[in-house]
Amino acid sequence: MAGPKYLTGDKAGIEEFLAKFDLFLFDCDGVLWSGDNIYPGTAETIEMLRAKGKQLVFVTNNSTKSRADYKKKFDGLGIPAKVEEVFGSAYSAAIYISRILKLQAPKNKVFVLGESGIEEELKSENISYIGGTDPTLRRDMEQKDFLSIADGSALDPDVGCVLIGLDFHINYLKMSLAYNYLRKGAVFLATNTDSTLPMAHGFFPGAGGVGAGVVKAHGKDPLALGKPSQAMMDAIEGKFHFDRSRTCMVGDRLNTDIQFGIEGKLGGTLMVLTGVSTKEEILAEGAPVVPSVYLDKLSDLLG
Ligand SMILES: O=C(O)[C@H](O)[C@H](O)COP(=O)(O)O
Ligand SMILES: [Mg+2]
């Protein structure tokens, strides 16, 4: 099988590739920016694709922000985007809970291990939640916590689901609460399980890294609703009604973005080398996940 095509500097190859697609699903972290650091040429590349009449959807696994938060981030970084074009893993999890899981009262509350992005999206689907950014949980574990969690008096009886995502305020108390809700039979979901997070041109523990302690204690993996989950692809297709053969997934990570596009039977996948996955990984003999094409950076599409 021919390896992925390298398109940096190949003007004709880029034109030919772009002409095959009407819709681009864009990953964010590691493709458009690294945290709050936008990659040079990102806004111009987005404008170029729009000028060619391409449709864009921003599909991020980063659950720390809601769609509205991302709209603010796009505006702040000067990237032309509409809030309707954002589809994050927090939103994917919220619609999974409201439209598929359908928690029944009284056990219809979600215990959140994550940031405000998850809370906002649960609210947008009228799902009640506890935990998350609750300031009373941002403290050290005390003896009384061991006692009240063990005897159940600290646990809300209406919690029917535990949802974990990237949490920059993880601690033993929140992990213990999440684990004990799972022991009581709560459904275990995750927005995503990425092991690492590209940020500030460096790498940090990702949602999967943060949630690993609860997963280990519980002994079972959560159902993840972010990339590469095809539940997310189906939800995006349900909202945007696109022709998969004329759709391309653009990403920086093989086991989320590129796998998402391949399993989704999209017309193509494009990997950039500004984020998590490396050239060596895609060119390795027998590489399990290989994109159709790759570029050093997104703005190479400008030719
Ligand atoms: O740990 C995480 O949550 C991920 O590293 C981060 O969310 C990736 O975001 P994406 O590249 O999908 O925009
Ligand atoms: Mg990424």
Automatic annotation (TrEMBL):
Mg(2+) binds at D27, D29, D252. One of its GO terms (cellular component) is cytoplasm. Its EC number is 3.1.3.41. It catalyses: 4-nitrophenyl phosphate + H2O = 4-nitrophenol + phosphate + H(+). The active site is at D27, D29. Transmembrane segments: none annotated. The keyword Chloroplast does not apply. Substrate binds at K227. This is 4-nitrophenylphosphatase.
